[in-house]
Design brief:
Shape of chain A: globular
Distance between the termini of chain A: 23 Å
Oligomer: homotetramer
Structural class of chain A: mainly alpha
Radius of gyration of chain A: 17 Å
Helix content of chain A: 55-70%
Order of helices and strands of chain A: HHHHHH
């Protein structure tokens, strides 16, 4: 990965600030915008089989990449306004999930697997 | 931010691989899981005013942080299986948005502001 | 309301059947399509204040109406394939909610109010 | 189907009014609540294959039915506050879709099939 998220977060703050968009960027609104983008991401896959979703045509992959970017940009902005470090939060969650789904019990079992 | 996403991505791959969960982790399924978590994130804010969402109680903030982590973990896993670099994708999108919403025109105007 | 949902459900079944779309219409796919449309619905409101969302311009209201229709059409199709009567399900849920949120306790209190 | 939606809509209005919940029920908030419920609905299917989603165990079907009810209840409340007749809106949309996806062209073709 070319960069840490740090720099991206700072650039996003400047981007919103220059445009005086901070007043629109309440956590409530950013969480809405995030799920709207997550819907645009899912839309690409909704009629595909799982196999088809694993073998995207190049133009489709590019479009998916653009939606991934939108989701990440809103997630970063939400973290900015709430003072959350998303990578630290994810690391903590991954550690908690490792304790919750021990390898021997979880292997190959989707039932245990509702939250990671 | 304590870390780049690189390391997190690698740990997630190992996590899924040890549990033999890769077969569940088609892009289609991961995009579904991502939006489900985005819904759990939004749920915290759905009855709040925007002002309330800017001033979360500590326990609420902690719960929100945990949902942010889930969203990021699924986004990273989706990027893993599709070979997308999310930070690079976000940087590209931010550059495109800067061209699309020039500062002078976009200032304070939410109408222009449907996609960032 | 001009009609019961019964007739609409039957017309939707014929619509999908004539186009040989039933094989795409697994419950999994229809639930995905439903949330994608719910995202398009929410998109209209994401940067509005609550007050603005209560006073939509006529063209906006028309666009919202079209998204409402999409959500209902997928909900009906999901009910068709799963054999669920949505109105009966909603009546049962409303009765359960009435027991869960008694008037005296719930009055004006959004905290109690996480699920209806 | 046991009933029209008319009566359900009226009962929902009374339900919210008795609890003084109308002030929480802006279109913006109801659209958020709707997508949150759509996420809880999708959660049941996220790790299933399409085939598994067509053959739900009875307890799972009951849980899905409960989420379907929640989606419909919020959709009805959104229609109430916006003055939308959802069945009429869906009928209009279905007619538009019939013109947009003629049987001969659409048959078996998921590509044409991004919006119904």
């Amino acid at each position: 990965m070319a960069d840490t998220l740090d720099d991206l977060g700072k650039r996003l703050e400047r981007f919103a600030s220059e445009r005086e968009w901070q007043r629109f960027h309440s956590p409530k609104n950013l969480a809405s915008a995030l799920i709207v983008e997550a819907g645009e991401l899912l839309e690409h896959f909704q009629w595909m089989t799982e196999e088809q979703s694993r073998a995207l045509a190049p133009e489709r992959l590019e479009a998916v990449r653009s939606e991934v970017a939108d989701v990440l940009l809103y997630l970063m902005q939400l973290c900015n306004v709430l003072g959350i470090d998303p990578v630290k939060a994810a690391q903590d969650k991954l550690a908690a999930n490792a304790a919750r789904y021990p390898v021997e019990k979880a292997r190959g079992n989707s039932r245990k697997h509702d939250e990671l």
